[in-house]
Structures are given as structure tokens and as C-alpha cells.
Design goal:
Length: 362
């Protein structure tokens, strides 16, 4: 049985990878490294049970000593290394991304090569592709449209120059599921806010804006599948076939919260684009205040959830991704599209954890 090292394993995707490996008895030993403290990471009961069966090391992987500790192992090196670590928030400075995305990832990759790991799976993003309404495959034009994606692409290019590194790059679309913080969860929170306000939820652009998706369970099963069967040096997209759009997500929000949706359209949205910072500030202020009131009314003092959306995500940038290439390797997606039940499960789990106020779902 292969051994596995999960870097950033307490994060959204990393924790689901831990669950997948443990529940399916796929790797032994499994080591997880993350700077987070598990007790304050809002793990679900299922996630807690999985973490009890792996080795956890708290460590900041921007530091060389933590990288050395992460990879230290008696006998042979870890077979598979999954890099889910690094800054995931949008709108950060280049220096932050340089340290906590580029430097972290490249140093970990160099260490993996030096100690002889068999596979290094790098979790990138489909935001490295040029925004296009047409689905983009792995040969698509590269034109990152977020600061995070720019640095992720730099990491991808750097991996090519590391001698003896057997790497695979994975570019997922928007990843959603239980414990999501930055994918579809902010829109779910905003849906609840408009339920409280009793107003129509109006969004920039149109219902046709592509927000292609992949469920986190498909994402982590794909990471493992590619570690075992992916071609070294290759890139693989991850996206379901739903061609998820702002409209299809909005329809689910309307169903879950009993709200009405509308769109500002191209003309008004283009006006807002001229001063997007101000438009986004106004929008976030409208959502943050009521969300805070909702949490206070529910006696929720601390929550990792927020309706805040960075301006990078609010431009007219379609994320349209062709995730079919991986299927030629024998992989099969289990979640063909976001559904009301799947998104409702996300909210219910956060309610159970005391992070999301009750009473807003229909």
C-alpha cells in the first residue's frame, strides 16, 4: 500500500482528501501537515474521525524547518505528495502570494524530488485560463485573471525545471461541497441575507456567466486517481459536465431560500466596472451588516463563513472548463452537477457546527 503526504491537509480540499484515503483504506501511513490548529478548524464529525487515523503535524510550510519535518520519514520517502497548501484567499498582495503560494510550493516540490517521492500532485486552478464562454481544455490559452491564478501558473512553470520531479498538475473549476468557504458558500450566505432582507437578489452581468464547478468529493478522488494513473508531467482539468452558470446557481438559491433573483445586465454592469472597487465595497457592506445581525441573533460569536466577495471574482470573467480529458484515464465523476440537495447539505453541516444561523432555508 502506498504512503501519502498531504500538505495543507486541514484546508477545504485537503481535509476531504484525508477522509477519502482513510475511509477507502488507500494509503498507509498518511501524514497531514498544516499550519492550522485542528481544534479550531471547524472539522465535521466525519472529518474528525478520519483525522484520528492519520498523523498530523502542525507546521508553517513557508519555513524550511517545517518542510524538512514534513518530509522526514524513516526508510523510503512518501510515495505520493499532494500539495493542497498555500494561500487560497483572493485579493492578496503579490508578496503574500509569492511567499505562501510560489515559494512554498516550489520548495516543497524541490524537497519531494530530493528525497525521491514517486509522485508530486500540484493543486492549481482553472482560473489560469483566459476567460471564455467556450469550454477550455488543457491546451487552452493561458491568461490568469486572479492574482492567485497568476502565481499558481508561475508554480506550474517552475515545476518543469525541477530535476527528478515526477509531477502532475490539476486545474479544478470552482470546487464546492461541505466545508466550502470560498467557492459557492458565499453565494449561499448572500441568498440567506436576501431572505432576511426580503429583497430581490440582484447580481452583476447575466445569468449566462459561466461558473463551472466540480464537487469536492470528485476533486479528491481525482487527485488520488491521477497520483496512481496520471501521466507524469501532464495537466488535467477537473469540471463536471453541467456547465454551471450564475443563473443555474441562482435557481438553486431561489429554491433553497425562497427568494427572487435578478441581473443588472451588461450596460449597468459595465458602468459598475468603471469603479469596481466602489461597487464591490457597496455590495459587501449591504451583505456583511445583515449577516452579522443574523449571526448575533443566533448567538454565533465566531464563524469562518462570510458573504464577502473580492472584486477579482465579480468581473465578467467566465470560468468554462472542459474536464473530460481525465475520463480517458478511467476516472468517472460521481456528481454531474450542483443540486439543491448538495448545496443544502453544505448549509446544514454549517448549522450543525454553529457557523450558520438556522431558520433561513425553506
Amino acid at each position: 500500500m502506498p504512503s501519502a503526504l498531504i500538505l495543507g491537509g486541514a484546508g477545504f480540499i485537503g481535509r476531504h482528501l484525508v477522509v477519502y484515503l482513510v475511509e477507502n483504506n488507500l494509503a498507509e501511513p498518511v501524514r497531514v501537515v498544516d499550519k492550522a490548529i485542528l481544534q479550531t478548524s471547524y472539522l465535521t464529525d466525519r472529518q474528525k474521525a478520519a483525522f484520528e487515523k492519520v498523523e498530523f503535524i502542525q507546521g508553517n510550510l513557508t519555513r524550511d524547518a517545517s518542510i524538512d519535518k514534513a518530509f522526514a520519514k524513516e526508510g523510503e520517502a512518501f510515495d505520493y505528495v499532494f500539495n493542497c497548501a498555500g494561500m487560497t484567499m483572493y485579493g492578496q498582495s503579490d508578496s503574500v502570494y509569492q511567499e505562501s503560494v510560489y515559494d512554498l510550493s516550489v520548495k516543497c516540490a524541490q524537497k519531494a524530488a530530493a528525497v525521491g517521492c514517486k509522485r508530486f500532485v500540484e493543486l492549481s486552478t482553472a482560473q489560469v485560463y483566459a476567460a471564455d464562454k467556450k469550454s477550455t481544455n488543457e491546451e487552452g490559452k493561458l491568461k490568469p485573471w486572479t492574482g492567485l491564478a497568476e502565481k499558481k501558473l508561475e508554480v506550474e512553470n517552475a515545476l518543469k525545471d525541477i530535476a527528478n520531479l515526477n509531477y502532475i498538475i490539476v486545474r479544478p473549476a470552482i470546487v464546492y461541497g461541505v466545508s466550502d468557504r470560498l467557492g459557492l458558500m458565499p453565494r449561499l450566505i448572500i441568498g440567506a441575507v436576501y431572505k432576511k432582507l426580503g429583497e430581490t437578489m440582484k447580481l452583476l452581468w447575466s445569468d449566462k456567466l459561466c461558473l463551472n464547478t466540480v464537487h469536492v468529493e470528485d476533486c479528491v478522488s481525482a487527485l488520488w486517481h491521477l497520483a496512481e494513473k496520471g501521466a507524469v508531467g501532464s495537466v488535467y482539468n477537473l469540471a463536471d459536465k453541467a456547465n454551471t452558470t450564475q443563473g443555474s446557481v441562482g435557481d438553486i438559491l431561489a429554491e433553497l431560500f425562497g427568494i427572487k433573483l435578478g441581473y443588472y445586465g451588461t450596460m449597468i454592469s459595465n458602468v459598475a466596472k468603471l469603479n469596481m472597487a466602489a461597487a464591490v465595497e457597496t455590495s459587501n457592506e449591504k451583505h456583511m451588516g445583515p449577516w452579522s445581525e443574523m449571526c448575533q441573533a443566533a448567538s454565533i460569536e465566531n464563524t469562518p463563513l462570510t458573504p464577502y466577495l473580492d472584486k477579482e471574482l465579480l468581473y465578467n470573467n467566465s470560468l468554462a472548463v472542459d474536464g473530460s480529458a481525465i475520463e480517458a484515464t478511467g476516472f468517472a465523476y460521481k456528481h454531474p452537477a450542483p443540486t439543491a440537495d448538495l448545496l443544502k447539505d453544505m448549509v446544514l453541516e454549517e448549522i450543525k457546527l454553529g457557523n450558520f444561523p438556522e431558520g433561513f432555508l425553506l
